[in-house]
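User: Structure tokens for this complex, please. No commentary.
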Amino acid sequence: MSNLHQFLFGIYPYIAVTIFLLASLIRFDREQYSWKSDSSQLLYRGQLRLGNILFHIGILGLFFGHLVGLLTPVVVWDTLGVSHGLKQMVAMVAGGVMGVTCLAGLLILMHRRFSNIRLRVNSSWRDKLVLVWLLLTVVLGLSTIFVSAEHLDGEEMLALMNWAQHLVTLRGDAAGFIVDASGVFKLHLLSGMTVFVIFPFTRLVHAWSGFGAVTYLGRAWQLVRPRK
Ligand code: HEM
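Assistant:
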């Protein structure tokens, strides 16, 4: 295993997570007024509803799909009697459906942001970078389906699961599992990890609040007038 491989897949993941958590915390503490999704609805309503809904269904499906798919211990699937091949097939189909949904939404959002003059001049380079980077990541993710289709035994997926699980359990040997993974997978992993690096510096921070809003379900009533 080369030093570069060890750095990119054994050390960079921790750098990315540290920047993600620390920079999010610092921005939340210091830059509250910039902490928003920065809706463009008032500038131009066209295509926003369709693009935004498709994009968010897709990206949230992909997020939770990756979380469950990568981090559920292999022993759980084995105990449930789910073969590695079946697990890979489910990942390919579910990831494919969510990936295409996300891609369709993203292309609509990009089309409106880049073609409408009012929107374009009111978009920062960060707004554009987010869309372009997510597009790159989703396209690379969808491309891995074609690689996976060439070997349906689930072994490469198993290597990726081991990589992710050894990373989160802080074992130093994670990168070794994916030395032989195909290049498309490696590029997808790198672009995916980089999403976490750019996250705190862009409008993406609103996703924290989106998830945080779930706590509203259990919060105390807000009293707007005194009881008599
Ligand atoms: C957690 C739940 C989430 C909620 C409630 C949420 C909500 C929103 C809202 C209200 C907007 C503004 C739409 C408008 O222009 O009016 C938005 C935009 C956006 N969201 Fe989310 N979001 C969530 C998660 C995410 C995630 C996980 C990502 C990607 C990692 C994401 C990426 C984006 C992007 C890129 C835009 C800008 C789209 C554009 O107008 O170009 N969101 N989101």
